Amino acid sequence: MSHIRQTDAIVHVVRCFDDPNIIHVSGSVDPLRDIEVISTELMLADLDSVEKKFQKTEKLAKNTTDKKLKTEFEIVKKVREALSAGKPACVVKPDEFEAPYYRDLHLLTAKPVLYACNVSDSDFAAGGNEWVRSVEKVAVAEGNMSLMICSAMEAEIAQLPQEERKEFLASLGATESGLNRLIREAYKLLGLQTYFTAGVKEVRAWTIHAGTKAPQAAGVIHTDFEKGFIRAETYHCEDLFNFKSESAVKEAGKYRLEGKEYLVKDGDVLFFRFNV
C-alpha cells in the first residue's frame, strides 16, 4: 500500500462486463461488491497505520503543553474514531490547524477516487449498462467521479496507425480514446489544468492548479520567472486553432497583456516577461 499512499488520487478500475471466457475471482460480476471489498481493505490499512500513530501521539500529548502535539493528537483521534466505525477518513473535516497533520497521515481513504467502469465494446457503443449506472450512483454519493472505458477497444486503438484511429473511434460512436478521457477526468478530480509555452524550437505543456495566478504559473517553469515577473503575453489555444497563426491572433485582437493578478485559464498560451 505504501506506493498508493504517495499518490494524490486513486483510479479504481471496476469490472462492468460479463464474459464467460474471463473468470471473475469472486465467481460473478458485481461492481458494488468489488468496490466495497477494496474500500474495506483501504480502510483497514488506514486504521492499522493510524492506530500506531495514535499510540505514539497519545503518550506525547499527555505529557506536554505543546499545542502542536495536542492538535496532532486530536486529528489522529478523530480519524481513528471514524475508521473504527467503518467510515472512510474523508468524512473527517480537519480545521486549518489540523489540516497539515491530516495530510501528513497520507490516508488512503482520504484521497479522491475516479471509478473507471470497464465495459464490453457493445455496452460502450450503447452508452453503458446497469452496472455502470450503479457505479455512477456510488461515485455521486461519495463526492467522487466515474467514467466508462472499454479496455478491449483501447488495446485495439493502441495497435492502429494514428491516421486510422479517428475512423475507428467514429465507427463506435466515440470522438476520442478512453485514455484521453481518463486523463481529462483525472485532471478535473485533482483540480488541475494546463497552459502552454510556444517558441521556434519547441512547444511545452505545463500543469498547474486551477486558480493559479500568472507569476506562480511562471514559477512552474523556473523560480526566477516568478521572482522577476513583469507581465504575461497571452491568448487561448482555441484562438490559434481558429486563426491558424499567432500573427492572425494578434490581428483579431485576441492577444492580450496580463499582470500579476491574472488567473491562468486552461488552454492559455503564455509568454512571460521577467527581470532578475
Structural class: alpha/beta
User: Which word captures the global form?
Assistant: flat
CATH third-tier fold name of the largest domain: DNA polymerase, domain 1
Give the terminus-to-terminus CA distance: 44 Å
Radius of gyration from the CA trace? Answer: 24 Å
Q: What summary fits the major beta sheet?
A: 3 strands, parallel
CATH class of the largest domain: Mainly Alpha
**Share of residues in helices:** 40-55%
Find the count of extended strands (DSSP E, 2+ residues): 8
Average pLDDT rating = 94
CATH superfamily of the largest domain: Obg-related GTPase Ych/YyaF, coiled-coil domain
Low-pLDDT stretches = none
Structural key phrases:
single chain; three-stranded antiparallel sheet; Ubiquitin-like (UB roll); DNA polymerase, domain 1; 276 residues; 2 domains; flat
What would your notes on this structure say?
This protein is flat. Helix 2 (31-62) packs antiparallel against helix 3. A hairpin with a 4-residue loop joins strand 4 and strand 5. It has 2 domains: 1-190, Orthogonal Bundle (DNA polymerase, domain 1); 192-274, Beta-grasp domain (Ubiquitin-like (UB roll), Roll), CATH 3.10.20. A 3-stranded parallel β-sheet has the order 1-2-3, sandwiched between helices. With 276 residues, the protein is α/β, with parallel strands linked by helices. It has helices spanning 2-5, 31-62, 67-84, 99-104, 121-125, 130-142, 151-159, 162-171, 178-190, 214-221, 223-227, 237-243, 246-251; strands spanning 10-15, 113-118, 145-149, 192-198, 203-209, 229-236, 256-258, 268-274. The mean pLDDT is 94.
